[in-house]
Amino acid sequence: MNSTGSRGFASDNNAGIHPAMLDAIRNANAGHTVAYGDDAYTRRAVSVIRDHFGAGAEVFFVLTGTGANVLGLSAITSSYHAVICAQTAHIHVDECGAPEKFSNCKLLTIAAPDGKISPGQVKEHLHGFGFEHHVQPRVISISQPTEMGTVYTFAEIRALAVLAQQYDMYLHMDGARLANAAVSLNLDFKAFTADAGVDVLSFGGTKNGMLFGESVIFFRSGLADNFKYFRKQGMQLASKMRFISAQFEAYLDGGIWRKNAQHANNMAKLLFDKTSRIHGIEITQPVEANAVFAIIPANKIKPLQDRYFFYVWDETRSEVRWMTSFDTTTEDIDNFAAALSETVS
pTM for the complete prediction? Predict the structure, then answer.
């Protein structure tokens, strides 16, 4: 918690719950309904997701983002397979080895200063097929937006999907902040997921106003045939699933996803505009979603953190990350920029 009690810029997870999500939960909290997803709320939510992602989408609700990633990858791999991802990928850095523990797969990482990986980089890992002494590449996994706040274009995603298909592999997308990417690209969800060739998507909303709950969406026919068993074994089958489903329905059907993400992205651009003018501050990444990365003098980080909570991204470079959210205000930005200017001056 900030010593000043003001909003920090550490994570969009730190924001509260959007009132519409609380209303959706409250409205679903009426009477009894069948548990474990066999209810009207879940059927409606699946229908709404298909409206956004395509009629053929197979949708499963889970409890957490890590659960979505781990189970989505586990469903399309065997223990002798490998998943290729960026060195900065959430599945590699921030999931405590869960993807490797539960899928038993090896993660093969690629250096990606801007968070993005390219077909040329992936090809360096595409060898040893059929050779029993070598782990078998099976999945290309990308984050959209990336952990560096950058956004893959349709063409970039499509190129990776084509490569995956050429080698009988799958393309997995971690979409914890997918709404922010959609707003940045000015595209609907389907255009840069199903239509781009993504096979499995982890689609989240907790970073954009939801209380809890994520989803795993399969676009390629047959991949989801046994997923209900993976979900149960993975301890991600919610008994009172209606409270996840009700949020997704309100989130998508009411356009809250777009409004919240647009606001968060706009606040990041404003934060960039205000902070990039300050002498001694170096912005290190394009601001394409709701993240700003900057290098600031090392001895100024702690004094600033005492006033506004945020994380150090790379201690060796004094690089920090500032995240905006659906409830960030222009006043928050102005006050932070003033504190930053005062601290580094």
Answer: 0.96
